[in-house]
Amino acid sequence: MPQVTFVYDKKQDIRNWKRVFSNNRNEIADALPWLGAKEIPDSENELQDLLGSLLSAEAMQNTIQKTQTSVEKRWRGIEKLYFTALEELTEQPVYVKSFTCALTTLHICPYDQAHDWFMVSVRSNADQQITNIAHEIFHLQFLRYYQNVIDDKDLSKQERFAITESFTVLLNTNTFQKFLPAEDKGYAAHEKRREHILALYRSGKNMPEIVRTI
Question: Are 109 and 136 in contact, with CB atoms under 8 Å apart?
Fold first, then answer.
């Protein structure tokens, strides 16, 4: 059975902050005070220096470690149930034996298909962290088996992204909600598409059929 490995790497965390900073400096405006920062740095180098100090503080390290321990313990309790349900839904075996869940102190959490890796925020509440893990793994499994079908459609990059994000609504079906502690929350802009996917699933269509027709 596949397993999730939990890690915290300060360098990875800082890279996540810098990535967001470079795309939209204002995205981190509300996040930095949570770490104890009073001002937004003017450059990536200044941000890196600031985070290097804030993330090394004993209190922050304790918070991160406690979160990692707690999240891992809770996830282990549902891990087998989740992967079994995921295989049944996607009608494919989980494509890899190990995923890496890296904690981040930012609220924005990327995933990396090439390395079977994703981030979960220390800032999220405990229930949402578990559902977020399910959400990110769902993306990776979905893209592994169905990205080629989506890519074959005459769609824009934005539309392909919307489809990929919208399919996680299937985590809100009874099969998953029996053990996931919180519902999956999508983007507001994708609400109608998510409702359509859920309706198709509840009408009896399986995932391959929905992917082909969506």
Answer: yes
* Residue whose pair of structure tokens reads 């009896």 in the numeric block: 204
The whole domain housing 144 covers 3-213
Given strand 111-112, what is the order of strands in its sheet? 3-7, 98-104, 117-121, 111-112
Q: For the chain, what is the domain count?
A: 1
Measured between alpha carbons, how far is 77 from 102 in angstroms, rounded to an integer? 19
Task: Summarize pLDDT for 89-127 with one digit per residue, the tens.
Answer: 999 999 999 999 999 999 999 999 999 999 999 999 999
Cα gap 165→170, rounded to integer Å: 11
Q: Coil, helix or strand for 143?
A: helix
Query: What confidence category does residue 214 fall into, taking pLDDT thresholds of 50, 70 and 90?
Result: confident
Please list the helix, strand and coil fractions of the chain in percent, rounded to the nearest 5, in that order. Answer: 65, 10, 30
Local structure of 99: helix, strand or coil: strand
**133 vs 42: CA distance, rounded Å:** 33
Collapsing DSSP states into helix, strand and coil, what is residue 3?
A: strand
